[in-house]
Structure formats: C-alpha cells, structure tokens
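Provenance and format

Records in this collection were gathered into a single text stream. Each protein contributes a sequence line and a token line. The two records reproduced below are adjacent in the stream.
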Amino acid sequence: MNKTEMDFAFDKKHIWHPYTSMTHALPTYGVTSAHGCQLTLADGRQLIDGTSSWWACVHGYSHPQILAAMSVQMQQLSHVMFGGITHQSAIELCKRLVNMTCEPLTKVFLADSGSIAVEVALKMALQYWQGRQQPQKQRILTVKQGYHGDTFAAMSVCDPEGGMHTMFGQSVTPQLFADAPKTPFGQALIEGDLNSIEQILIEQQQHIAAIIIEPIMQGAGGMHFYSADYLVQLKALCQQHRVLLILDEIATGFGRTGKLFAYEHANIEPDILCLGKALTGGYISLAATLCSDEVAQGISDSPAGVFMHGPTFMGNPLACSAACASLDLINQGDWQQQVKTIEQHLTQTLYAAEQFPAVKQVRVLGAVGVIEMQQNVDVAILQQQFVELGVWIRPFANLIYIMPPFIISHDELSQLTDAMLTVASRIELAVQQQPQFISHG
C-alpha cells in the first residue's frame, strides 16, 4: 500500500465527512488542486465542479485577485480579536456590504458561518422585542421545506419533517411552521397561498418575534423556486402584524438567482439579512448578518444593553480580505451576463430530462439547474457515475442539481448538463427510497 492509499485508509477509518456514517461511509475522492472550474483528483483525473463547492466558489478556484488579497493580508495581520479592536479589512468589507444591500440595512455583524449568521439573526429578533418592552415575542415563524443550518437554533427553523427535529426531539426549540409557498416563480400568486402563514400571524402575533424565509429559492429543502408575489405579500403581513422579517440569502445572495440579492425580485426590504457562502468566493469561511437602525436600537435598549454574541474568530482579517476581493469582482458586474448565459444554457438543455420516466420535474432559475426525480437516488452510485463522466455533481434526496461557478465556460457547462441527462436517463423507478435528512447540499 503506497502513501496515498494509506492516507485514504486513515481518512475512511478516522475522519468524519458531512452527513456520513463511520461504519458505512459514502466514498470520498481525494483532491490535490483546483483551478478555474476544475478539480484535480489524487489519481490525476480532472473533474468539472458543478457545485461551486456547496454554492460558494462563484469565481472559481485559484482566482488571482482573491489569492493576492489574502497573501497581502496574511503577511500583515492574519488574525486579531475583534473585541475592542478593529482593522481595515473589516471596515472595508462592511462598507461594501452596506453599499450593496438595501438602504435600511446599516449595521453589520460578521459571523463565522451561515449557521451562525442565522443564530445571530434569531438572537437579534428576540433581543429587539425585549428592547421594545415585548419580551413575550420569542417564537419564530417560518415555512415548511426550508433549510437554515445545522446548529440548534438554526435547526429549529428547518423543515419540521424532513429536517432533524424528530432526531433531537425536545432539545430543538419548538417553532411555528406554515405551509411552503406553492406559486411557482414567475407566476401570479395562487389565491390562498399565504392563508396558512396569515392564520398563524393572526393567532400568535403577540408571541412571534420574526419570520425567517429563504427568498425566491428554498435551497437544501428541495430546490423549490417560488413567486416573488409571495414575498411582497409576506412583507405586507409582517408590517401589518408587527413582526420582523429575516431573509436568509446565504445560498441566494451575490447573483445566484439572476439578481444581486433574491429579495430584489420582489423589490422588498428585510429587517435582518443573512449572507454567507459566496461572500468570500468560497475561499475561507465567513458570513454576515445585517440589520436596520431600528433593530439595532431595539437591541441596544434591551435589558442586556448590548448584543449578546461574539465569536472568537469574528471579523477575521484574512477572511475579510478575501470577502473584499470577492465583492470587488461582483461589483465589476460580469456576473450578470455570466448568470444569464448559464440560465439560457440550462433552460435549453435540461428540460429534455422531462421525457425520462424517473424524472418528476425540471427547474431552472439563474445559475441553478435542478432535475427532480420521482424517488430518492443512491448518492454513492450516482457520485461514481458522475466522476466517470468527468464531473463533480453531488445529488441529495431525489435531486440532481448543479450550481456552477459563474465563470464556467460553454464547453464545461455542456459537459455538466450532458452528464446530468445521461445519469438521469439511467435511473429506473424501482430505486428503493431511503430516509433522508435535509442538509445544505
């Protein structure tokens, strides 16, 4: 056994990968380098990445502008505590975020990851109402089929059936769940689509601190795209019933749906906004939670007098420098044509899969392409088939999807969509369904 084989054996025996078992783990593939949209495996094979490493690497790998910014920052200040100290990278990043997002969002809290950004948003909502002398408003309302992260507060607002509520029982805070949006994206609102959420607001508004929702696209809960009209009406309901609106744009932010932020499809403004994933271009973990002056004032007026959160690596200079470089690339505007081109290609190719017996539906929005199967797929088998076809596509539940880097070439994208159609055409309806828990990809 050579060193590479020994290392892989160690990995299989000792290293836990996301959503896997240590007794019958999914196969893993060693990656030695990455450039552009290509991953190089330990055995020399190259794969086109269709996932942007869980939707984050929108600029591709080894982008010189991001690497240069990180290199300079590493020589100057790789980390310093954010308590009582500030630095230029964090200041510059927060300037960009305030300028890029809608006008009411003026305050920025820098977090470590998407799940923590959601935790921060929920804490903000609860502390806000304490500062407004309504401490009884402690419940969070959301919709089914959502996904907001794996930490405990974030789990509490994930789908109550497909998520992890049943596994962790009473350790997960009970929240309020309305029916998921039914109106497809681009269509006028189906009558009664908000009846479920409106009824809960009528009955429970005195206890509800906020509504949290993924705008336009419910990501890991099933890759559903819903009508912008739903968000317009939801915002109106929040104002009517005096409930904060939290938008989780960790997956949709920075261009993925064809708008810089998905809330722009509905021309609404949240009270609190969660960002992550593409924030640094996927080069290092960082997230952010933004809120309005009103929310910040309410928190400051709460009994604590301060916002009660402060991660050790909050505002990490190296991560902030990567984010500044990533947002500079976004601000150049090339993503708009790139995403439009990707959407056109996905639309022209993927809908051919609807003729396959095992396919339930095909959906495309921005740089997201989804083939929904009738039944759950065998992830290990499909993963191997995709690798053999020279692509990295990571299915989950009954979904075969891609969210490629924005910089992807026509030929690379064609290889991805060809592989999706090839694999989907092979799947038979007899595939045995397996229990699935929602994850972020």
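Adjacent record:
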Amino acid sequence: MSNLVQRLEITAHPQLEKSLGYRGDSRWVAWRWEPDIDQLIFSDGKIVGTGNNMAWLVFLQHDLVQPALQEYNFGEGDRYWLLLDTETRNLYVGEGKAVQSLLEQPESLALLACLDGGNAGKTAETWQQTRAQVTATTAFRHLTNVIPFGIAAALIGALGVGTGWWVVPTVQQKLAEKTTFTSPISSVANCGIGGSDDFSAYVGSSTGDKELHLIGVYEANAEHGKANLSKSAIQVKVERRNKPIILALSAYEPVNWNVTVEPGAVIEKIIVNGYNNQTVSGVSGIPIQVHSYEATGNYIGDFIYKWGTNPESNTPSLVTKLEQTSRTSLTSFQGCYRGTNFSIK
C-alpha cells in the first residue's frame, strides 16, 4: 500500500464501534489485532483498550466486508489498522504507525475528512477558508469522491496552506521521528493458566509527574474459603521507568500481592483495596495503604476486574476515587476474574 491511509469502498454500520467494544465518544477510532496476546485492541488517540474478539471475527468474515479487507490480514497480524470516522461512517485502512500518528493529531484527521473527495482545483484562498473552519469546529462536510491521504498531503504542500500543517517533505520525517507513549500493558499478564482467560485492559495518558496503575481481580485462587493467603498469591512485576508510580491493587477475595520492582523503577506508594484481607509482600520501604472491609472496616470502592461500562464492572466508581485520592489520572488498568501474574512495563 503506497499511501498512508486509504478509504475503503464500504461504510460502517451505525453500531459497529459499540459491537467491537468501543464505548468512547471520539470522532475517530481505530482497531488492530495484537498477535502476542490474541486480542483486538482499539485506540482513539487518547485511550487504548481491548475490544470484542468474536465480534471482530464476525465482522471480518461478513460477505460484504471480507472481499474489501482480506488483503490486510486483520485477523492475524498487526501491520494494518482499521480506522473509522464515526460522523461520516467512512472506513479507512493504514499502516499502524501512520494511523497512530494521525490519531494523535486531530487536525490531520480533520483534513482527511475534508479532503476525502474534494476538488483538486480548489484555490489557495478556498483552502485557507477550509483551514479556518477546521480550527473552529470538528463538524466538517463529507466529500464523496476519493482522494488518498498521500495526494491530499501533496495538495496542501503545493497550495502553501501555512506552517503547522503537513507538507510532503515532513510527512515521512514526522512519522519516523514521532515518539509515542509506550503502553504499560504486557502480554505476559496471565489470566489463562490457572486464571479465568478474560483479560481486559485500559491505557490512558501519562501527562503528570507520576503515573497511576491499577490491577484488579476478583480472586487469585478458587480455594479461598479458609482465607489462606499462602495459596492466594498474585505476582506483580513493575518494570516501568518512565515516572514514579502509584500502584493500586484491588481484589474481592483475600490476596497476597507479591510485588517485584525491577532496577530503575520507582514505586511512590502502594494502595490496596479489598473486601477480604489483602497483604503485600516482596517490597520494603514503600508506603502501603491498605483498605479492606475485613481488615480496616472500609474499602475505597467497588471491586472491578473487567474494564468497561457493564454493570458488573462498576469501573468509574473505583477509578474516580483512586484518582481523587492520589491526585493522579489513571494511566493503566489490567485485570480479570481470576489472575495469577501481571506486569507493568
């Protein structure tokens, strides 16, 4: 594929993004397959999360979709991403680095929407007016004919729209030099062997001077009737060296959280949330706040092990309270019903 992004000849059903597991409100969202963990991943430029694997496979195999997408190997590889404009319902395909870079630059996606089918004979004055409209609002008119994004970039450069917009010599340079936020979610998170095989995750931004990472499970082992913490251990390895970390650990059943801190990683504080007794081992000299109904008579919030808006997850409550307590926005969540080990990379 020679262009950065190409529009497909199919349009999206009004419920596609919800069916694939995206519940956000961004205009643009993209999906890709992550072969290391056999999981559908979505990104809207602000958050990254896990999607609905079965719905993805059903979508790819549909009679109207399969002929348009089969060459991109969406069901097995991660080279190409599927990009959706939720306003026009147009679908695009592009290589991962290009789509990720576009998602992080909304003005570029706005131009893509405007240029998608525009008249190549527009004057420079008209393009200046378009630029002003792009800056003022995200409600852009849909143009029906196809102009691949590579050609659109060339048009912008030729018309001299101005600094701050992509021109041909800088497109590849920006894609090559673009430094991206490294996801803290590791493929070694284990909810399958001895676990419940229902791993879910969320990745937010990292804009402050520290990061908040949350790991949530319901239990570590099915044999917790006698609250034997020696049989209810979860291994947590912290490798991330970006910034100091506030580590939040949450479970309903009793868990011994065995934390390993790799050289260079800094944990500022550990916050433990549980209904039954929770303990932390493997570390020393790190402040630990334990909140469990059994041990202290109180807990921070609901016990989530699945990210999303389903009733059983109660995601916003615990997250909101943790963010308020730590004065830090959530950087990542990972969890499952029964977990055995997790890693923050």
